[in-house]
């Protein structure tokens, strides 16, 4: 099946690519395996230089790369340009800190010398999603390459131009041919790559079903895997919060990337004493958002990435309303060209509804009333997901309680959840396992080798 690049703002097919044949795919795997044995011997200084080169390329051409992202998956141009800049930040972070993160660590034992060293393991397959088509790839590729591994990218089938652009950036930056290769293949071909003994490990960011599939295949082959799956992040607002900042940040946190982010705030849990004011002002702010052409500077919300994603989101909204949720705003697909959806607010969805425990991928917020901090935590944790969370309170005792009791890979206090090259990123429960970014991310795909000398 051909791989098509379709503009979600217009529905226009931009370009069609033929997937790799079995023979061509095998050649790329052989090339990656052979390249690893020489690449792993390159120095940290060389790899850092190549990463710094990649950062300059990204920054110099951020408008061009932003445009590619926007036309392929619909994010606003301003956010796409910022994504390219963030990728450059990750390159520079690991160029500056990668060697230190992987330095030998002496450990005192009865040996004359004993230490732990970190060594690369080989080609790593990355199965990546479309919603942050550059950032998701770079946050894997940069630490993996800095550690001495080589990368193989199976990107989402609706962003092939992004996938090829990333390979070109890293090649132009100076990385050896074969150190990072894009595999234009369909989902049906991914299993053969995972099964290949030349592939040492895999990382996936994406849906729960895709994560289960990759985890099962890696488990069958006894290969390391890292999964970053869905999220239904709580955004908790308590009476002591700065309500103005919480509302403006909450709307941004729900609609960032057109609402298509695993760490977008999705469930707004608000203390009863301030709930009425929060609901009214939150709806007003959502209603004021500009929906339209993602290339236009004034656009806040662009289209959803595909027609199927929009239809699935609309079905979830209709199901929620049928189950008793109050529709406060939106709830409709916008007619005409493209895959646009109205900013939508639902309130009071019963916990017995299936939608209560599902991830809504689009500009749809769910509001809930909580009696106190205890009920807010109970609501927050009543989810199969545990990726990020945001809590708004100026009470230090409440802050400590939320940090301790919320089941998530991250808690942001009086701020919006965001990924940062300096901090580990990942989740618990059905949001996945393992970590990306920071010191923990660069150590995921290495051999933690114990050395003992008499």
Question: In percent terms, what proportion of residues is strand?
Answer: 15-25%
CATH topology of the largest domain: Aldehyde Dehydrogenase, Chain A, domain 1
**Full CATH superfamily name of the largest domain:** Aldehyde Dehydrogenase, Chain A, domain 1
Could you tell me the mean pLDDT?
A: 97
The spatial strand order of the largest sheet comes to 12-13-14-11-10-16-17
Number of helices: 14
Low-confidence stretches: none
Q: What can you see in these coordinates?
A:
- This protein has 454 residues and is an alpha/beta fold.
- The protein has two domains: 3-229 and 431-453, Aldehyde Dehydrogenase, Chain A, domain 1 (3-Layer(aba) Sandwich); 233-420, 3-Layer(aba) Sandwich (Aldehyde Dehydrogenase, Chain A, domain 2), CATH 3.40.309.
- It has 14 helices and 20 strands.
- It has a seven-stranded mixed sheet, with helices on both faces. It has a six-stranded mixed sheet with strand order 7-6-5-8-9-19, with helices on both faces. Strands 3-4-20 form a three-stranded antiparallel sheet, with no helix packed on it.
- Helix 9 (243-255) links the parallel strand 10 and strand 11.
- The termini are far apart.
């Amino acid at each position: 099946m051909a791989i098509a690049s379709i503009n979600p703002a217009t529905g226009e097919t931009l370009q069609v690519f033929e997937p790799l044949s079995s023979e061509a795919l095998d050649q790329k795997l052989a090339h990656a395996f052979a390249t690893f044995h020489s690449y792993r011997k390159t120095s940290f200084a060389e790899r850092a230089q190549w990463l710094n080169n990649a950062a300059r390329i990204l920054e110099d051409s951020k408008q061009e790369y932003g445009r590619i992202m926007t036309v392929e998956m619909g994010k606003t141009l301003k956010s796409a340009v910022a994504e390219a800049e963030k990728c450059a930040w990750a390159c520079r972070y690991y160029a500056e800190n990668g060697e230190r993160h992987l330095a030998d660590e002496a450990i005192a034992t009865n040996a004359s010398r004993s230490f732990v060293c970190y060594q690369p393991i080989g080609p790593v397959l990355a199965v990546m999603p479309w919603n942050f088509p550059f950032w998701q790839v770079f946050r894997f590729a940069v630490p993996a390459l800095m550690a001495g591994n080589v990368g193989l990218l199976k990107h989402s089938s609706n962003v092939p131009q992004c996938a090829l652009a990333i390979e070109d950036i890293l090649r132009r930056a100076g990385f050896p041919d074969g150190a990072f290769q894009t595999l234009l293949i369909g989902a049906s071909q991914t299993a053969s790559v995972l099964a290949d003994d030349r592939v040492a490990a895999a990382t996936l960011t994406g849906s729960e079903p895709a994560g289960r599939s990759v985890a099962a295949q890696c488990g069958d082959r006894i290969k390391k895997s890292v999964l970053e799956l869905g999220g239904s992040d709580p955004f908790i607002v308590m009476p002591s919060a700065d309500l103005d900042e919480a509302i403006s940040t909450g709307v941004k946190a729900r609609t960032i990337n057109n609402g298509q982010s695993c760490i977008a705030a999705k469930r707004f849990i608000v203390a009863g004493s301030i709930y009425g004011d929060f609901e009214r002002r939150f709806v007003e702010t959502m209603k004021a958002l500009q929906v339209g052409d993602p290339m236009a500077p004034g656009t806040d919300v662009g289209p959803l990435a595909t027609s199927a994603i929009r239809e699935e989101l609309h079905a979830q909204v209709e199901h929620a309303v049928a189950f008793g949720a109050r529709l406060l705003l939106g709830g409709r697909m916008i007619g005409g060209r493209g895959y646009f959806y109205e900013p939508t607010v639902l309130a009071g969805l019963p916990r017995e509804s299936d939608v209560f425990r599902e991830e809504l991928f689009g500009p749809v917020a769910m509001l809930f009333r909580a009696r106190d901090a205890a009920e807010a935590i109970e609501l927050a944790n009543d989810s199969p997901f545990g990726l990020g969370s945001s809590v708004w309170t100026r009470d230090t005792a409440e802050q400590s309680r939320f940090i301790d009791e919320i089941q998530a890979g991250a808690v942001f206090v009086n701020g919006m959840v965001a990924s940062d090259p300096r901090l580990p990123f990942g989740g618990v429960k059905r949001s996945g396992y393992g970590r990306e970014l920071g010191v923990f991310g660069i150590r995921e795909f290495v051999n933690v080798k114990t050395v003992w000398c008499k």
